[in-house]
Write a structure and sequence with these properties.
This protein is α+β, with helices and mostly antiparallel strands and 510 residues long. The protein starts with a helix and ends with a strand. The structure holds ligand 87F. The site of ligand 87F has 16 residues, from α5, β11 and β14. GO terms for molecular function: ATP binding; proline-tRNA ligase activity.
């Protein structure tokens, strides 16, 4: 164990001790989001019961609370790509070294991150086997086999799987882990226009995952030549921003691969004129990183804050019995409330555990981020009402049981919308336009996401990286937004002073 890891393990152990105590008292998180964001994040993902740390650095146990979020996003995306006639498949986890190294440009920079199996039991394998870091090289030999004529096109496949990338920079649950879950789509078309169209359709689905499900605003745009996937033609992405750290984060990518892989893997076909032609390919992915972005954007000092659309439990019903009160009546009212909500399609549960107090349960479900809490006590029973408490803003209100379902629906819709609105306000407040180098540096030091006019030259981007290199990482391009503000005639690049070609977002990033 390296020194840093050992220290972390012992800190983890002492944190666990602290937490056991907290569990009894319901005290919550020991770090504050504003004061120590890193510690806050490491703590909240465990206390919110999303993950458990594991004894291999960079690997995390995804607990049911995580998987239910993942499954909801998965159900949405899977149904949408099926509408696009994309089919699911599953290719093996292992890659033979010859195939892996076939596409040189593609693998070059990534080689150090590839994990290998070199033994079975005590004996060395004759040929070591790689574990997929992504599946281009796994799949494309079979694309070559399966695609013969234009009637075999388009070929549109997707797989839900895990991948392994042996990262060395500091691992962070969900954000940078050595194994993660994702979907990877790989498609092949006869014409470039078809590929171009799909790139944007998929990107729109990624926007919807972030904005409509996770309530996180994103920017759609194109990656620079320097930041694009080297094996492809161009890369589009959705970019999110974490105001607390002032870092951008790539939310998902949709690449047009052009014909690079088709050439390498000889994926050709006979077109409708009887000529030999090369396919046009795309690949696209989003991963469990989405969940980390959601935690960072919405979480607070009381714990997770889950948007209703992705919460496994949208409404938690808690009985509040009181000395001589009609406990059975209260419990029955809780049962009826859950039943009514479930029947109307809401994910609601009651917490009837008798070894925890109502107060403890409030903190517990707040920590887990459940969007709405319903409390039922003697007074509520007598008035035929329930008390509802919002997780996002702590607002409380009494709801007559007769209008329970309608009002819960309205409140959940409102929470979903208001989480997005607040996140967008916070994000927008971090966007700074910079037209000169001085303005750029000032904005960067103020943890902003910078929109700057740029000459779009790779050398200049490298130069900006070099000039901003420091302890907390260099600035780079995040994307050039599709939604381009007007660029006045004669506008100059903030970094090179040459004529600017486009507006581009810059910042530090994950
Ligand atoms: C790490 C090791 C080996 C990223 C890697 O984005 C190879 C790679 O190819 C690698 N890390 N990449 C780029 C992945 C490109 C592309 N693959 C399919 C996607 C979407 C899904």
């Amino acid at each position: 164990m390296a020194g840093g890891e050992a220290k972390k393990a012992s800190t983890n152990a002492s944190n666990r001790k602290k937490k056991e105590v907290k569990k009894e008292t319901g005290l919550g998180l020991s770090s504050k989001k504003d004061e120590n964001f890193g510690e806050w994040y490491s703590e909240i993902v465990v206390s919110g019961e999303l993950i458990e740390y594991y004894d291999i650095s960079g690997c995390y146990i995804l607990r049911p609370w995580t998987m239910s979020i993942w499954e909801i996003m998965q159900a949405f995306f899977d149904a949408e790509i099926k509408k696009m006639k994309i089919k699911n498949c599953y290719f093996p986890l292992f890659v033979s070294p010859g195939v892996l190294q076939k596409e040189k440009d593609h693998i070059e920079g990534f080689a150090p991150e590839v994990a290998w199996v070199t033994k079975s039991g005590q004996s060395d394998l004759d040929v070591p086997i790689a574990i997929r870091p992504t599946s281009e090289t796994v799949m494309y030999p079979y694309f070559s086999k399966w695609i013969r004529g234009h009637r075999d096109l388009p070929l549109k496949l997707n797989q839900w799987c895990n991948v392994v990338r042996w990262e060395f920079s500091n691992p962070t649950p969900f954000i940078r882990s050595r194994e993660f879950l994702w979907q990877e789509g790989h498609t092949a078309f006869a014409a470039k226009e078809e590929a171009d169209k799909e790139v944007l359709e998929i990107l729109e689905l990624y926007r919807r995952i972030y904005e409509d499900y996770l309530a996180i605003p994103v920017i759609k745009g194109k990656k620079s030549e320097h930041e694009k996937f080297a094996g492809g033609l161009y890369t589009t992405s959705v970019e999110a921003f974490i105001p607390h750290t002032g870092r951008g984060i790539q939310g998902a990518t949709s690449h047009c691969l052009g014909q690079n892989f088709a050439k390498m893997f000889e994926i050709d076909f006979e077109n409708d004129k009887g000529e030999k032609a090369m396919v046009w390919q795309n690949s696209w992915a989003y991963s469990t990183r989405t969940i980390g972005v959601m935690v960072m954007v919405h979480g607070d000092d009381k714990g997770l804050v889950l948007p209703p659309k992705i919460a496994a439990v949208q409404v938690i019903v808690i009985p509040v019995p009181y000395k001589d009160a009609d406990t059975k009546g209260i419990f029955d009212a809780c049962d009826d409330t859950v039943k009514a909500l479930n029947e109307s399609g809401f994910r609601a549960e009651a917490d009837f555990r008798d070894n925890y107090s109502p107060g403890w349960k409030y903190s517990h479900w707040e920590m887990k981020g459940v969007p709405l809490r319903i409390e039922i006590g003697p007074k509520d029973l007598a008035n035929d009402q329930v008390r509802a408490v919002r997780r996002d803003n702590s607002a409380k209100c009494d709801i007559p049981r007769a209008s329970l379902v309608e009002q819960v629906k309205d409140m959940l819709d409102d929470i979903q919308q208001s989480l997005f609105d607040v996140a967008k306000q916070n994000r927008d407040a971090c966007v700074q336009v910079a037209k000169t180098w001085d303005e750029f540096m000032e904005a960067l030091n103020n943890k902003k996401m910078i929109l700057a006019p740029w000459c779009d030259e790779e050398e200049v981007e490298k130069d900006v990286k070099a000039r901003t290199k420091g302890e907390i990482g260099a600035a780079k391009t995040l994307c050039s937004p599709f939604d381009q503000p007007a660029l006045d005639e004669g506008t100059l690049c903030f970094a090179s002073g040459k004529p600017a070609k486009k507006w581009t977002y810059w910042g530090r990033s994950y």
